[in-house]
């Protein structure tokens, strides 16, 4: 699949335009402008998903699309769409300071704050710094930073600062996990033979490819 990263960048900006809170809306534009070069050059990870130039931006776009889709599937869900979109668009912004720009021998930047403290901390730190320039209720500011700091939903090496305490961030976490799991799968499942095991990204175990003789016909509904 050929990805036009400028188009994807514009799609992200388009999502931000639906945000009603003027500060949050402006903040996305400012941060995206400041971090554009990094977003369109860095991978999302070095080995588990979106390991290509601009993979970070493409992953962020996909997570936002997934999160909006989840909300649309539950139209009576009264979540704050401003926070869902804002949090999705910035959930991995900390990774901008995590990896070198994409090359074949890409690796973590040794000694970088994100390499030492993790992208949840780095992202929360970036967003909090930008927010400090605006006159905004302190508790609401904490909720906004919480979107970034808790999006990984678990304590682990790459995990969250705190576990999610808002439904909006639970939605972002589901959207994030779907994308991180499915993106590496498409090439692995297509090269596996019927009934064969194939391994994808960070999945906990390999999966079997279907033996259904009608498999090829069943792919599209
Ligand atoms: Fe993340
Ligand atoms: Fe992510």
Could you characterize what this model shows?
The structure is a single chain. The protein is mainly alpha-helical. It folds into two domains: 179 residues, Hypothetical protein af1432; 33 residues, no CATH class. The protein contains ten helices and two strands. Strands 1-2 form a two-stranded antiparallel ribbon. The longest helix is centred in the first third of the chain and has 19 residues. The structure holds fe (ii) ion (2 copies). One fe (ii) ion binds next to loops.
Task: List its traits.
about 220 residues, mainly alpha, Hypothetical protein af1432, two-stranded antiparallel ribbon, 10 helices, 2 strands, globular, binds fe (ii) ion
Q: Kindly report the CATH topology of the largest domain.
A: Hypothetical protein af1432
Label the structural class: mainly alpha
Q: Could you say which overall geometry the principal axes of the C-alpha atoms support?
A: globular
Tell me about the largest β-sheet: 2 strands, antiparallel
SSE topology sketch:
Blueprint: H1 5-16, H2 22-39, H3 55-73, H4 81-90, H5 113-117, H6 119-131, H7 138-149, H8 167-182, H9 185-191, E1 197-198, E2 207-208, H10 215-218
Antiparallel strand pairs: 1-2
Bound molecules: fe (ii) ion (2 copies).
